Amino acid sequence: MGYVSQTTEGSPLAGARAVGPWGIGRGFTGLCRGGFTAGDTVGHKGRRTAGFTLVELLVVIGIIGVLFSILLPSLAKARRQAQSVQCSSNLRTFAQAWLMYAEQNRRVSCPGRMPGKGSATPVFYLGDGSQYRPRWYELLGAVNGLYACRNPKNIQDDSWQIESAQFLCPAVTNWTNSRNYPYGYNYQYLGNPRPKPDGKWINWPVKSDRIRADQTVMAMDCMGTAAGKPKAQRMGYYQDGTHDPYGVGNKGWAIDPPRLTADSDYADPERRNPQDRSGPDPRHNGRMNVAWCDGHVTLDQPGDLGYVMAGDGSFPVSGPGADNRFFSGTGRDEDPPPAK
């Protein structure tokens, strides 16, 4: 015999129908059997409010994890692209200043570094103070009223740090040493005031109107002398200015052209050996930013500029394909000026 439950209005059991002899109806089952799920609540008239089960929560968490795994590579790629764009902008500022420097200095191209021997003094005033033999990026920065550090030094010191982000590559933010610099200058053809044995400078002054600006590399992402070593033998970056030819960025402020000869100068004049040549750093997804003397910037692979890369990752100084036409200033594949 069936029973009908007796409830009063406002009771938690109001509206529950008894179906069997135990007086348990469908609306009452969850209460008696602990059938409420996580987050379920009972309203003031006994209505059950829907929540999430543990399984549903795990499903949602799993979906979020999948979305993150899809998005993270895209976010990382976008970050790398942003770094490349900022790097390009920094180099463009230098390239535009190259023309301005020449106009302000009787059409003489900016040298890789101001001379020591053969000049009246190795100390030069740039506008923010006296600097010992300032390098190209300091000279070009000063054209635009930009300075690499707040306290320049008038003595030789390879440990001083660059403080302005406008002088640095955002892809290698710890490369802040003034000697082991992230951008290398085409010093061999644009201005190399190192002395030869006869006392004359190797290649300076260089008149800017002799340079085919739109076809001549001014500066680019540079690995320094580590470029001449197999990739497996390269060491880390030395922020304190340590002179390690195997360290990435070593003597990075100067970049050697793709092809060198037995009489060529090298970025490190104390190590004029093929394995110690300075070379490109394709740090932007296999490419490097390249600033040209007319002010434009391109994103290129090493081979696009005439560099040859060996199977071990090193950049030899000769071989099929090695070509200096984008460095010589004439548009032709010419030997670097002899250092002897």
Polypeptide structure, described:
With 340 residues, the chain is of the alpha+beta class. It has a domain at 69-305. It has four helices and eleven strands, in the order αββαββαβαββββββ. The protein has helices spanning 26-33, 54-104, 136-143, 187-190, and strands spanning 41-42, 48-49, 123-125, 130-132, 183-185, 192-195, 201-203, 217-224, 279-280, 288-292, 297-300. Residues 1-45 have low confidence and may be disordered.
The structural class is: alpha+beta
What is the overall silhouette?
Answer: globular
Major sheet summary line: 5 strands, antiparallel
Number of strands: 11
Topology:
Elements: H1 26-33, E1 41-42, E2 48-49, H2 54-104, E3 123-125, E4 130-132, H3 136-143, E5 183-185, H4 187-190, E6 192-195, E7 201-203, E8 217-224, E9 279-280, E10 288-292, E11 297-300
Antiparallel strand pairs: 1-2, 3-4, 5-8, 6-7, 8-9, 8-10, 10-11
